[in-house]
Design goal:
The complex is a heterodimer. Chain A is mainly α. In chain A, the strands form two sheets. In chain A, strands 1-4 form a two-stranded antiparallel ribbon. Chain A has five helices and four strands; from the N terminus they run βαββαβααα. By secondary structure, chain B is an all-alpha fold. Chain B has one domain. Chain B is built from 21 helices and two strands. In chain B, helix 9 runs antiparallel to helix 18. The radius of gyration of chain B is 23 Å and the shape is globular. The termini of chain B are far apart. Classes of the chains: A mainly alpha, B mainly alpha. Chains A and B meet through helix 1, strand 3, helix 2, helix 3 and helix 4 of A and helix 8, helix 9, helix 18, helix 19 and helix 20 of B.
């Protein structure tokens, strides 16, 4: 269970640290008025300051937030979607887009027994084929084939 | 008169077999992404973007804009039949549309929605026809300082009128600006904010952000809310369609008011979502049957739908004539314009007459095509909603991953996309607005360039923003909008203070 307060604080800390990173990084690029006009770091520096300031304000406001934002059951459902998706993305460099997407669809549908084995297999097989036809053939956009395919000489 | 002539020329471009076919494809794809939760207009348009690179710009924009119209209509279908808004901008349509459909009047609800949506769109397009070239003419005289002032005004109106918590809007906007700055700085050539990662040299594309924020983010929200599609009958009774549309003129006041709100929110970038909510709220307050709102009231459907579509279409006005998109989807389209090698802004009306007027003419035709197609295909797309979410969800994740990858064949973009998905979920959950973030990514560089050029002209003095009457009034209007939420808060505090004092008096 995650309370609204924790979620607000977490988000504010997240945006705030991004702002801080932007500030530090743009200080290296130089800020202010230089010989060639406004230094390249100036604009990002200002946005960084605004992000950090706004995040601090949201942090303070977030402390006052009440109630439950995400219940335990919600969290389980979200993880059920996000974890396989992250595994899929993680598998792309090795397995390639086609193999990874087939495995992903099959895994999500068949393993928790949400769909019959046959149906899962069919959907898992059709997905990369459609991807291949639409992208590689029709629009000539090459999707990553992965290291496994490369090792096999594709 | 000149505009009408140009418009006729535009119709000659838009009414070719090839372009009509593109409209049909665009609208159908649009309805599809509009119907599917997790995929929306910004996503759909960015997904199609890489596929348009080989096309003529005018054909490409007709395809993309038709998809936008289709998505706006598709979002209302699921709102009314399933109580599931397919698009954020059709949330307000569920309030009265779904109760109406549940009472056994789904055709009435759908026809009313489409009829008023078409009216809203029509008003938006007419506005563009007569106003856009005039605005562009004024803008031709703009220097960098005026441009920066207009950008400033646009962003200030997000903060002042967007409806979200002002500080959250500020943070979202500034994050967008920072993301836009990643990569090689076009003015000085130096590398900025890459944190030493070489793949970031090319910058972060708005498409990657849109895929994550709107695609994955929305999926996560949808799976958490555990949507159950409990459909009412999706059969269309054609006689009732005409009867319902025939009854619309009776609600002329509501239609006109909602269209006006929509156009206003579309041009000043408030966006369709804010427009539909605002229109619904105002209709509820002013309608004689205001207390019946929420239980299937006709005007409760008319108000958000008209405003939604009026805002959606008129969002293209500032995009065409100033180079400032009025909504997230318009921002994506503008990104497309830049990729196709066009320079969005007033020069379009001089250099690219065919493009501009072809697009404007196609908006008239495209919306008609959309109304016809959406009515014809309601049963088909309603059946689509019966496909279990567990099957659709992984497919959408794959589509988003492929979409992010295909922008510049970079794996890092796919990882970033997933990261944007988490941000999108958090932001949606805590009502940070997403549209300003995307807008800032798209036009961040242009805004920065305008600022730096003005600084060069004035040798580093901010006085250039108060140099003449035009730029001064733009800047002051922007500042006023920025202060608006603060002022309202103070006013509320004062009134709140007065109220409690009254209570105290009563108690004693």
């Amino acid at each position: 269970m995650i309370s609204r307060r924790v979620l607000e604080l977490l988000t504010a800390v997240l945006t705030g640290s991004f702002g801080l990173a932007v500030i530090i990084s743009s200080l290296d690029d130089g800020i202010g008025w230089g010989e060639a006009g406004v230094d390249p770091g100036t604009f990002p520096f200002l946005t960084g300051v605004i992000i950090l300031g706004g995040s601090l304000y949201n942090l303070a406001r977030g402390w006052l937030a009440e109630g439950v934002a995400v219940s335990r059951a919600d969290l389980r459902r979200i993880a059920g979607l996000f974890v396989p998706a992250a595994v899929f993305v993680g598998a792309i460099p090795l397995a390639g887009m086609y193999l990874a997407s087939a495995g992903y669809v099959f895994g999500v549908l068949a393993l928790p027994k949400r769909q019959s084995l046959l149906r899962s297999l069919i959907i898992a097989a059709v997905t990369p084929v459609v991807l291949y036809i639409v992208f590689e053939r029709m629009f000539e956009v090459s999707l990553p084939h992965g290291e496994i395919a490369a090792a096999l000489g594709y | 008169m000149e505009n009408l002539q140009a418009l006729l020329h535009g119709f000659a471009i838009a009414l070719t077999v090839q372009h009509l076919a593109l409209m049909v494809i665009g609208v159908l794809l649009g309805i599809l992404v509009g119907v599917l939760p997790g995929l929306g207009a910004p996503n759909g348009v960015s997904l199609l973007l890489p596929l348009t690179f080989g096309m003529q710009p005018v054909s490409a924009i007709i395809l993309l804009s038709s998809m936008y119209w289709g998505a706006l209509f598709g979002g209302s279908v699921t709102s009314i039949l399933f109580n599931i808004p397919g698009e954020p901008s059709s949330v307000a349509t569920t309030f009265d549309g779904y109760p109406m459909a549940r009472e056994g009047k789904p055709t009435t609800a759908l026809a009313t929605a489409f009829g008023s949506a078409a009216f809203g769109a029509l008003v938006g397009v007419i506005l563009i026809t007569f106003l856009a070239s005039w605005v562009a003419q004024v803008a031709l005289a703009f220097g960098p300082a005026e441009y920066f002032a207009v950008y400033f005004l646009a962003f200030a109106s997000f903060i002042g009128m967007g409806g979200a918590a002002p500080m959250k809007t500020v943070v979202a906007l500034a994050i967008g600006f920072a993301i836009a700055a990643i990569g090689i700085d076009t003015v000085s050539g130096s590398v900025r904010l890459t944190m030493g990662i070489d793949e970031l040299l090319k910058g972060v594309s708005f498409v990657v952000a849109v895929m994550g924020l709107f695609g994955i983010g929305e999926l996560l929200v949808a799976v958490e809310e555990e949507l159950h599609a409990r459909a009412v009958s999706s059969k269309i009774d054609w006689l009732e369609v005409f009867r319902a549309v025939g009854r619309l003129p009776k609600h002329a006041t509501a239609l006109l008011r909602s269209a006006a709100i929509g156009c206003w929110m579309g041009i000043t970038p408030g966006g369709p979502t804010a427009a539909s909510f605002m229109s619904y709220g105002i209709a509820k307050r002013f309608s004689r049957r205001g207390q019946h709102f929420g239980s299937g009231e006709v005007e409760g459907v008319i108000a958000p739908e008209t405003a939604d579509h009026a805002a959606g279409t008129s969002a293209l006005l500032p995009m065409l004539s100033l180079g400032i998109p009025g909504s997230a989807t318009a921002a994506v389209m503008m990104g497309g314009l830049m990729i196709w090698g066009l320079n969005p802004g007033p020069m379009l009306f001089v250099d690219q007459k065919d493009f501009v007027w072809g697009l404007i003419a196609s908006m008239y035709v495209g919306n008609l095509v959309a109304v016809a197609l959406v009515l014809l295909t309601v049963p088909v797309f309603a059946a689509l909603m019966r496909i279990p979410f567990v099957i659709i969800a992984p497919l959408i994740v794959i589509i988003c991953a492929v979409g992010a990858y295909s922008v510049s064949n970079s794996y890092l973009d796919v990882v970033l996309m997933l990261g944007f998905g988490v941000i999108g979920y958090l932001f949606k959950k805590l009502s940070y607005p997403l549209a300003p973030l995307v807008l800032a990514i798209v036009i961040g560089d242009k805004a920065e360039d305008a600022f730096r050029q003005s600084m060069l002209m004035s040798k580093g003095s901010l006085e250039i923003f108060f140099d003449n009457r035009l730029v001064t009034s733009l800047v002051i209007a922007g500042i006023a909008l920025l202060l608006l939420p603060l002022l309202l808060q103070i006013l509320q505090l004062l009134r709140g203070g007065a109220d409690t004092r009254d209570e105290k008096v009563k108690v004693t």
